[in-house]
Amino acid sequence: MSRAKILFIEDDLDQVKIYDFKFKLEGLDFISTQHGAEGLRMAEAQKPDLILLDMLLFDKKGTDILKKLKENEHTQRIPVIIFTNFDKEETAKEALALGAVDYIIKSKITPSDIVKKVKEILHT
User: Fold this and answer.
1) Following CA atoms 55, 117, 6, 38 in sequence, which dihedral angle do they give, to the nearest 10 degrees?
2) Residues of the domain holding 75
3) Domains contained in the chain, number
4) What DSSP letter does each residue of 24-93 carry, written as one string?
5) Over the stretch 2-57, which tens digit does the pLDDT of each residue have?
6) CATH code: domain of residue 91
7) In the 8-state DSSP scheme, what is residue 97?
8) Is 2 strand, coil or helix?
9) Fewer CB within 10 Å of terminal CB in the chain, N or C?
10) In the prediction, which pLDDT does 36 show?
């Protein structure tokens, strides 16, 4: 059985390092990028099992990335969790309406809990 692959689209390198370590420790493959456009390319090429997507990136808004992921027949079925510090109810509603499976505020969850949540979604 292959290991689940997580794509993290996040511009904060400290966050990437923390979650790279935690996901790999928990037996999951972890790939990341700091740029939304590259994240779209990686999602299509790498076919991750789940995407963690920040809302505020260097080059694009998370909702724009989410729309493109859900419009692309090659990526539309990949579950996307919005994983951000952008705590606005209207943005959360928009992301969920666009197809995100969850909207999680980084400061309100531990690395262990996000790994648990991802495993629940992936049924691993």
Assistant:
1) -10
2) 5-122
3) 1
4) HHTT-EEEEES-HHHHHHHHHHH--SEEEE-SB-SSSBHHHHHHHHHHSTTTTTS-EEEEES---HHHHH
5) 689 999 999 999 999 999 999 999 999 999 999 999 999 999 999 999 999 999 88
6) 3.40.50.2300
7) H
8) coil
9) N
10) 94
| Residue that has been written with the tokens 């493109």 in this structure | 68
The pTM score is 0.95
Phi/psi of residue 80, nearest 5 degrees? -120, 125
| Tokens at 27, concatenated | 């037996």
Residue 121: φ, ψ to 5°: -65, -40
Helix (H) or strand (E) holding 108: none
Token duo for residue 110: 């531990």
The number of angstroms, rounded, from the C-alpha of 24 to the middle of its chain's C-alpha atoms is 15
